[in-house]
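User: Sequence recovery, please. Input:
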């Protein structure tokens, strides 16, 4: 087959992706969900992190789950796309991080059973401000402690770097979802991200799971996209979600209207893809037992 003949040599796969995650990786057992905290992370910008946090949040909400979104990026795209405006005096994720405000005080409602802790431009100084503080990787974990059990899912959107805000998210999370742009250059950063996840497991959060890798920005009829997808599936196996998010102008259009694609174009294949992702996430999310509030 043509795709096979020009598929990427193993040597290049090694160069771009390094080691596979964990050899014993298997999707967690299906179950009743409550109190699951997911970080959406990738240090590369523009790969669909904020779009995935929003769309997955809406898709889980459609499936009658109670969802909290947390915007940890100073660009506050997730907040904007949710149609939430930070008014004067409103608390943001920055206040949770820096001033120990409990998450409950910063929560705003998008619609019933779908809430957000908004991001703010102040998060831009968060890295520096945090670096002076104590327990600096645990601030988000601490802040969420009293609210996480109220939600079926808390979905945190990370900034495009592996700094302290992302480390806070990975420390607070049960699992991490990695949007991966189907482009060979985008694979280059994967090893650094997987190493960071390993380091977090070894230091601040030994229970952190890899929920899965989500192929995003797949171009229809593109041999390159297909080729990259085939390579990553071969390399990462079942860690890759079956769902693939294709490129569509409906995504930026929905964002411009401060809505998710599920609201903007409910029957579009892009909306459908995020519903399928939600089904996969529900299947992969483990039951939580014995969690203290
Ligand atoms: N599947 C997609 N197809 C086309 N554009 C997309 C898709 N997903 C996201 N986008 C657009 O790409 C840009 C970057 O996406 P975003 O989710 O903000 O990425 P990140 O949070 O990783 O920086 C946004 O303008 C968004 O609307
Ligand atoms: Mg973003």
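Assistant: Recovered sequence (293 residues):
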């Amino acid at each position: 087959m043509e795709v096979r003949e020009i598929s990427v040599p193993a040597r290049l796969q090694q160069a771009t992706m390094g080691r596979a995650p964990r050899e014993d990786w298997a999707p967690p057992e299906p179950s009743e969900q409550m109190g699951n905290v997911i970080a959406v992370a990738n240090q590369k910008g523009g790969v669909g992190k904020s779009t995935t946090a929003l769309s997955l949040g809406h898709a889980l909400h459609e499936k009658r789950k109670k969802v909290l979104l947390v915007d940890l990026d100073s660009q506050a795209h997730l907040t904007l796309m949710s149609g939430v405006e930070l008014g004067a005096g409103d608390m943001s994720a920055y206040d949770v991080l820096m001033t120990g405000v409990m998450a409950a005080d910063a929560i705003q409602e998008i619609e019933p059973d779908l809430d957000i802790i908004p991001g703010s431009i102040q998060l831009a100084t968060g890295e520096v401000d945090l670096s002076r503080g104590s327990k600096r990787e645990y601030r988000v974990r601490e802040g969420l402690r009293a609210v996480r059990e109220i939600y079926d899912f808390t979905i945190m959107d990370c900034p495009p770097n592996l700094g302290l805000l992302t480390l806070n998210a990975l420390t607070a999370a049960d699992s991490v979802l990695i949007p991966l742009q189907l482009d060979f250059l985008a694979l280059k950063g994967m090893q650094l991200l997987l190493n960071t996840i390993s380091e977090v497991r070894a230091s601040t959060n030994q229970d952190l799971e890899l929920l899965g890798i989500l192929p995003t920005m797949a171009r229809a009829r593109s041999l390159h996209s297909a080729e990259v997808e085939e390579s990553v599936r071969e390399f990462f196996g079942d860690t890759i979600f079956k769902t693939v998010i294709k490129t569509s102008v409906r995504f930026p259009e929905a964002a411009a209207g401060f809505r998710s694609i599920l609201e903007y174009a409910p029957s579009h294949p892009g909306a459908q893809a995020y519903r399928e992702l939600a089904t996969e996430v529900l299947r992969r999310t483990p039951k939580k037992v014995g969690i203290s509030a």
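Residues 22 and 210 are 9 Å apart (CA to CA).
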